[in-house]
Amino acid sequence: MTKYIAAIDQGTTSTRCMVFNHRGEPVGAHHLEHEQIYPQPGWVEHNALEIWRNTEIIIREAVRKAGAAPEDIAAVGVTNQRETTLVWDPTTGQPYYNAIVWQDTRTDQLINKLVENGGLDRFREKVGLPLATYFSGPKIAWILENVPGVREAVKEGRAVFGTMDTWIIWNLTGGVKSGKHVTDVTNASRTMLMDLEKLAWDKEIYDLMGIPVAMLPEICSSSEVYGHTLVDGPFQGVIRVAGDLGDQQAATVGQTCFEPGEAKNTYGTGCFMILNTGEEIVQSQQGLLTTLCYQFGEEKPVYALEGSIAIAGALVQWLRDNLKMIDSAPEIENLASTVEDNGGVYFVPAFSGLFAPYWRSDARGVIVGLTQYVNRGHIARAVLEATAFQTREVLDAMNTDSGVPLKALKVDGGMVRNDTLMSFQADVLGVPVIRPEVAETTALGAAYAAGYAVGFWKSKEEMRKNWQVDKTWQPDPESLAGTKLYKEWKKAVTRTFNWVE
Known about the structure:
This protein has a 7-stranded mixed sheet. It has helices at 48-66, 108-116, 124-127, 136-146, 150-155, 164-172, 185-188, 203-208, 247-254, 313-321, 331-336, 376-402, 419-429, 441-453, 460-464, 481-494, and strands at residues 4-10, 14-20, 26-33, 45-46, 73-80, 86-89, 94-95, 99-100, 160-162, 182-184, 194-195, 200-201, 218-220, 223-228, 240-246, 263-267, 271-278, 289-294, 302-309, 346-348, 366-368, 409-412, 433-436, 469-473. The chain is built from 16 helices and 24 strands. It is globular, with a radius of gyration of 22 Å.
């Protein structure tokens, strides 16, 4: 009798494996960080081989901590940092180049060329996305153009593309021996190459970008059996690989936002708010992304509106690693608590441009309002507040697009343990902020997708029953966070524009 579902969460800064029971409770987990590689300003890369080595270790450790045998695990699901782009040789398993991370801005010239012949929204009706450096398609084009031998290798069947879910699933299912080259609709919808209605690669766009269709993975649903692990693999047994979701969609499923109008916000490296719009494709008029929310097996696809913020938790890491202002990320809350307010300081972290709702690749980060009064505490508070203000901007856009004002916000991710931030977030939004008992909803969503595919969970209602409130923050009606301070934040944002010529 199988007791558990495993999930691999391949994130921007680390990879985690979690084992869940039927109640959606974690019974074993392990994670490892991987190196962040910055070859030039604006360039961000990962070593895909390091990530797979880490994945093998964390699987073994999580299963060991859960006290589980291979036969106890019904299936494994995968979730991943989206848009991060890898091209590798399926005959050797060797990448041709480091994985180009979603934050990377090296494709800006290609984007500018595409914009010239049709504007920022040239493909939006088909793919739901504006032209931006964020997405995978242009990154593939960059690799084909700039890495010697790749274009020739594609013709010989020796070069395939995948986002990190595809890479992990390919390795899990046997790699060079028998690896399955697949992705799901949520990840495919972030490449800028998939038609939202047809759920298929779009010939006009991949031809325009010079991307051979032969290198693209098969598009599958988010919940079906793609293949099986091998006995000599990290699970040391034959287990069905049956769930695949981009990380933000996985968190939406983990938060059981299955009804239109339900929304969640994930506070990780970046910050991502997703609103379920049901079976309807809603084209944003406010700079949001139209994306796949999930598709379970043969069921109809469910769509979403998404607001993407590039830098959230990454700003705390920057304060730790680059400015050495704190020794560990959790210390920021204590430092921020040494002051009553931000001292007039606003920090707009447009390190790789501004994402939703602006989509300004010419923007760069600024700290404004500095005076001699300002100290480390004010900077720390401004760092936390930046995430809350950016979330408000996205929520305002969502309310306008959907016509449905949000009544409460479900939150998850690493930063939701920060009470100062969550309390301020409720004040800025003017609605309750709700944290669930299981905050690792990204991994849980991948587990749900895999478990649903194999009948471990029989219905969405069964998953919904697992969701429990841990803490709720109510907005303070006396707070100026959503009025005066937010207005000043909006002014600070304008100071980031037009920095890159």
